[in-house]
Amino acid sequence: MRAYLDNSATTKPCKQALDEMNEACSSFWGNPSSLHVSGLEAKAVTDKARKSAADFLLCEEKNIYFSPSGTAANNTAVLGAVNEKNKNLRKIVTTAFEHPSVARCMDYLEEKGFEVIRLKPDKNGVVTAAQFADAIDEKTALVSLMAVNNETGSVLPFEEIRQIVRRKKSPALIHIDAVQAFGKIPIKASCADLITASAHKIHAVKGAGLLYVANGVRLKPVLLGGGQENGLFSGTQNVPAIAAFGAAINEAKEIMPHYEYVKQLNSYLRSELSETDGVHFNSPEDALPYILNISIDGVPSQVCVNSLSDMGVCISAGSACSRGHRSETLVSMGLDSERIDTAVRISLSRYTVKEEIDLLRDGLIKTVAKVR
Predict the structure, then answer these.
(1) Spatial CA neighbour of 155 closest among 163, 145, 165, 164
(2) How far is residue 181's CA from residue 192's CA, in Å, rounded to a whole number?
(3) Given this model, what pLDDT does residue 323 score?
(4) How far apart are CA 172 and CA 160, in angstroms?
(5) What residues contact 264, with CB distance under 8 A and at least 6 apart?
(6) Tell me, what's the pLDDT at 84?
(7) Helix (H) and strand (E) counts for the chain?
């Protein structure tokens, strides 16, 4: 038996998603921009998925745009938003532990003369609503934050930002990176102007992302070309991946039962790992239960990952999108270098079973004994 516990990196596609993808590949393989019968059939497939996403976020179908990836959606949301705002608005509020697809955009905008305020989490990975309230003002163009941190599972106060922006009389647009939260906790379109998600994080397949754009919000596209997706994401749509995305969204609708199941698994995981000497929990107690970040004294991250992989247990040494780099998330939390260099991320899904956690526990016991 293999224990796959790296679901924050990617998830195993569910049967419904694979069925929809296979049907799209075999029967609806036309270009959805073509105005003949095959093209119209392919467009109907993307329209069906668009409706699923709109129903999930409680918005209109016209507000949903499909992108090639979560990264493309985040880039378009961040860069497109500030390019269309008043040129006198040069301030952006974000956090110090955003995903690289947002963080690198912030670096770029800073080079272009924007003032970027990066709010730091505390040692438990928490960024408070009060920190956002102190930073947001009438000169703020954009507030961009994760709903859930991809390395520790910390839940940010994304539902409170709208009220803060209104109270501060700020013109800021609100962008929520919901890649790790989508399908795991409730998210409504009304909480933001821009929301991004990724198909392969919710048991669909790689090659599709999602961007919600509120009514009245104008974005300057980052990808230029044929004008697909109303000009926001030029390039022929990946119909099979979008079809799978729609099916996976439908399968994720029972959020709370899945949440409670994973929460029980997380509690069991914490209990079992507490028995191992030198284990430190880097995820706060109230983190999203799908993610648990730990450090193990004396066991370097990659050594731990490699050892467990040899035993058929899959976890990660941090974000899969910043492979080989020290975790910016844990650095921003102010953890010491030993704690950071021994950190690993365990990420669960609604398909994870107790036996996989037992395999991880046994593998960690063997790894710790071997390394020490």
Answers:
(1) 145
(2) 14
(3) 55
(4) 14
(5) none
(6) 64
(7) 12, 12
Q: What is the structure's pLDDT at 192? A: 97
15-251: which CATH topology? Aspartate Aminotransferase; domain 2 (3.40.640)
Q: pTM surpassing 0.85?
A: yes
* Set 14, 191, 304, 321: catalytic member: 321
Tokens of 112: 């272009």
**Number of Cβ within a 10 Å radius of residue 48:** 15
Structure tokens at 234: 């030029």
Neighbours of 182 (CB within 10 A): 27
How would you classify the pairing of strands 194-198 and 173-177?
parallel
Domain residue ranges of the chain, discontinuous segments joined by +: 3-12+254-366, 15-251
Q: Catalytic: 321?
A: yes
Q: Tell me the sheet residues that pair with 31.
A: none
Residue with tokens 């009304």: 190
Query: Which parts of the chain sit beneath pLDDT 50?
Result: none
Dihedral in degrees, nearest 10, Cα atoms 197, 201, 206, 211: 0
Ramachandran angles phi, psi of 150, nearest 5°: -75, -10
Q: In 3D, which of 345, 247, 248 has the Cα closest to residue 296?
A: 345
Q: Could you give the CA distance from residue 24 to residue 27 in angstroms, rounded to a whole number?
A: 5
H helix or E strand, kind and range, residue 296: strand 291-296
Mark residue 177 as left, alpha or beta (left: phi above 0; alpha: psi -120 to 50; beta: remaining). beta
Alpha-carbon distance 156 to 287, whole Å?
Answer: 9
For position 1, what pLDDT does the model report?
Answer: 85
Residue 66 CB neighbour total at 10 angstroms: 26
Minimal CA–CA distance to 205: which of 6, 19, 2, 30?
Answer: 19
DSSP label at residue 261: H
**287-323, pLDDT tens digit by residue?**
999 999 999 999 999 999 999 999 999 999 865 555 5
> Which fold would CATH assign to domain 3-12+254-366?
Aspartate Aminotransferase, domain 1 (3.90.1150)
- Which residues, 6 or more positions from 89, have their beta carbon under 8 angstroms from its beta carbon? 82, 139, 140, 141, 171, 172
